[in-house]
Sequence to fold (426 residues):
Amino acid sequence: MKESASERMKWFLEARFGMFIHWGLYAIPARGEWVRSHEQISVEDYQPFFNEFNPDDYDPREWARVAKDAGMKYAVLTSKQHDGFCLFDSKLTDYKATNTPARRDLVAEYVEAFRAEGLKVGFYYSLLDWHHPDYPAYGDAHHPMRNNEAFKDRKHNFENYVDYLHGQVRELLTNYGRIDIMWFDFSYGNMSGEAWRATDLVKMVRELQPHIIIDNRLGGNIKSEKPEIYAGDFASPEQIIPPEGVVNEKGDPIPWEACITLNDHWGYCANDLDYKSPKQVIRALVECVSKGGNLLLNVGPNARGQIPAESKEILREVGAWMRKNGASIYGCKGADRPKPEWGRYTQKGNKLYAHVLDRGIGPVNFRGLGGKIVKARLLADGSELKVRVPWNATEFVSDAFVSFGSSRLPDEYDTVVELELAPDSK
Ligand code: GLC
Fold:
């Protein structure tokens, strides 16, 4: 059964918050997943990591609990990164987890564990492949051997690689039950669109998993009035939250998901302790939702399969906030009103959520909402807040005001006030 784009996107727009997981051999050198490219490391010199890959503490059930406790509703795991190493048991290559000391299909265990926690499951799949002999090497923009003269006259047949890529995607979407997201990464220069035989690829993906949603990195133009069949279901801004959300060429908002790292790397990087604070993460999530987007927040488990303790600690705090304030995130979108001075709005139906980030002084002013608020509550505990025009604000007749009764905000990360609007309020 075919599903329309808006049907398949429904759960995603409701979910708003997901976990990105970058994991592979590169966790051992621990300098991020681009290590082979950045340091121009050959397949041979990278081989020791394959020979010793043995994540003795890999417990995807724990990962799934961490995600769920943080309030995340879905996850996306790197089934294959640019280095070409497969966490899954592909019949099309020997370069896979089952041939390392790990000896297991790590993707199968991930799918099972995340499903069991009720989370939606996605696969990241790198279109680039620095291990496959038919992927262009010399002169390529990113390949580790791009400058290696020995690769100059190497014969390779790119179409073989594209067959391989299609075959692996078929395996991923055939052997692991229902998959919710296919996250391709990425297109560049001529390596884009039909170079990947993207039309056929997407047709196959949708045939195998009709409900699946696909990101926009196969090289199409998702903003076009007539997007290619492979243009994707959502935009994927990276390490940035777009200033006004994402709109298409007609100016209509389109679904998007910002992918953001917790420190400054996707794959595990031992020396990178530049972690964002829980406050930054919570505010980033709120910012995404206030602009109609999702947040896909990354963790990079280490060589033993552990999510770094720092990441877990941040996610724990985010989760504590989400348990109290999740109603202002799930199923919400931006409000059709200007960004308020003190923070941001999210909205779901007649519930307008005021995310008060900056206490300021005096009562909090809700511009233009005079006479339109039926009820105001502190979302965290449901306690009533009185909406009234204070003695010193009588000239601002069109506004509404709430006083916190303290010069400090109840929640320094983000104090959410739930405003129930009168029917038909604009
Ligand atoms: C970039 C990187 C890749 C990473 C991705 C996440 O495209 O090349 O390594 O997985 O961003 O969005």
